[in-house]
Amino acid sequence: MSNRPLASAGRAIPLLRAGLIAGIVVAAAAYPLAALTGIGAKATAHAVEQKTDILKTALPAETSYLYAPDGKTVLTMFYEEYRQYTKIEDISPNIQQAIVAAEDNRFYQHHGVDPKGVARAFVSNARSGGVSQGASTLTMQYVRMALRDSAKTPKEVQEATQQTSLRKVKEMRMALEIEKHLSKEQILERYLNSAYFGHRAYGIYAASQIFFSKTPANLSPVEAATLAGLVKSPSEYDPITSDQKDATARRNYVLDNMARLGYLSPDAAAQAKAEPIKLRLTTPPNDCASMDPKYRPTWGFYCDYLKNWWSAQPAFGSNRLERMDKLRRGGYRIVLALDPKIQAAAEKNVGAKDNTGSPFANGIVVAEPGTGRIKAMAVNRNYSLNLSDNGPSSNPEAGPKVKANYPNTVAPLLGGGTLPGYQAGSTFKMFPMLAALNSGMTLSTSFNSPYTYKSAVYDGWAPSNASGAMTGVQTMWSGFGKSVNTYFVQLEEKVGADAGVRLAEQLGLRWRTDVDKDQASPAKAKKWGAFTLGVSDATPLEMANAYATVAAEGRYCEAIPVNSIMNRDGTPAMYTTPGGVQREVAKPRCRQVVSADAARAATDAARCPTGDTPAKGGCGGWSTADSVRGTVGRPVAGKTGTTDSTRSAWFVGFTPELAAASFIADPDNPFNAVGDGQSEVPVNAVALTLREALKGQPVRQFTPPSDQIVG
Description:
The protein is of the alpha+beta class and 711 residues long. The chain is 39% helix and 11% strand. Strands 5-4-19-18-17 form a five-stranded antiparallel beta sheet, sandwiched between helices. It has a four-stranded mixed beta sheet with strand order 2-1-3-13. The longest helix has 18 residues, at 39-56. The radius of gyration is 33 Å and the shape is elongated. Residues 364-666 form the Penicillin-binding protein transpeptidase domain. This is Penicillin-binding protein.
């Protein structure tokens, strides 16, 4: 059935342009200030100026969707106004007809302004002494909504919606202009996608979902009339929170009009009016904390990382506020880079999972070498805003009323946010070693490494080894495999502490505490001898991606949480590089940071801590995590790390395919030592996760370093 009223189908009443202008004059008389200020001419100028902007304006704010890696499963949404733009062909004729019956019976007869409606409004307003009727057509209402949705400042929003003569007459002029360029179907489509129906439902798609859990294409006449009745006053006619008396009366009014216009037969309208309003409510998820409960407790941390990553992308705005506004209004389709198989392995293998009452957080992040895509993030916590079951913080300075971060938290414990992270211990030895190899030093570089070494370069600083068994001449292989502090202080003296600091920055590390920022500054970095011992804070996200660079033979790729980001029109989201090149936002961003040979050499040395056999050298008889090779069951490299009194413990491991970093520490109280007994927790988490993630895949070998860099 046509959407046009049967009584006038095929014979739209032509309106003389002079009649429309006369209608506007009548409108001016209906609003006291209009006749006094020359508002008609002023409104005409504004209308011509803004008509093109509305025709070209961006579509209304639209919900962004976050998808699982399959690109089909919706995990959550991001919106301020829940809305999904829907084409007119996907909207049931029932709601198209109902909105005309509810808001503008003569929609198909007028050209944007209805002189009869204006006349009725004039009479009504004259009798009431105020503005009791506005004579707004659907086109005029669309103009108002378009101005509101395209407003860039609060003042523009106010000007678009305030009850003034200027606004009303300008709407009329713009409605006339709009109807010269858009068909009735195009105006109706835009209107239905802009109207507010209550309960944060903007547009007919959101309204259909929230009130009836269906798409607009499947709305029945009764449902359509119910929704159309809401537009006039969403709160007054709300069928959810009221007793439905007013909502039913308004719905029946719409049904009667649909029958009068020929959209429904009298019998069908009577039958529809006899039905009660039957709702099937849906509450659309919004943001990470309300994502699908099947995924939220563990995947929520990844979702939160995505938001933090998004807020730092210049492609979406010049500052954080603009970027988050784009996320909530831009209608993006975002597919996560997370790998469900690897994520499941990570969730299974984080330690102390059965002891969520522990203050010690054990987390793991898995990165993909060569792309920077983060394949898994897991921690022995539940992602939740509900802290009611959390005990008091383990930090004695926090006070008894401050809640701990367990079992529930939304804190970015794995990285990607503002938290500084945790001291990473000897995992930092990778940075001066890699800097040394890249500068031309060889794997065979040896130093006599006493139990305690007093550094003249670092003003008499005298670190010691963890064990007397480390004393003696060491090379990079054995020094790294046994984690010999006094070897690495001497290596750092040769290459320069600042070289290690700057390389760490190139590999993605950021300094977040005042102490770390000060020590990493150009003025002090040369003297930061303790840098090689991992006294700086770092996050597992940073460490996984830094070691992934080594696995990728020196090619650093920025950490990225997405496989794709599509605009609302189905095109990839793009950004412009500093060099003026257009690139997809979701594509890997990689650059060679150190030579491939230097990275291969560092990998060869890093096979020693894991119990693996390097291609070119010897590990010195023992190592700090010699069970890893047997657990993973394929070539693997990595490094352990512990801090003073084992306040935190780390392991970062990698194969050619994946790099994983795991830590255990108390995020609430860094002085609460995890103890030597739990230092194996991150080692096992990484080894077991890599084994299960790579199960069934062909075994890949590391490329050996050249003889030249072996020395």
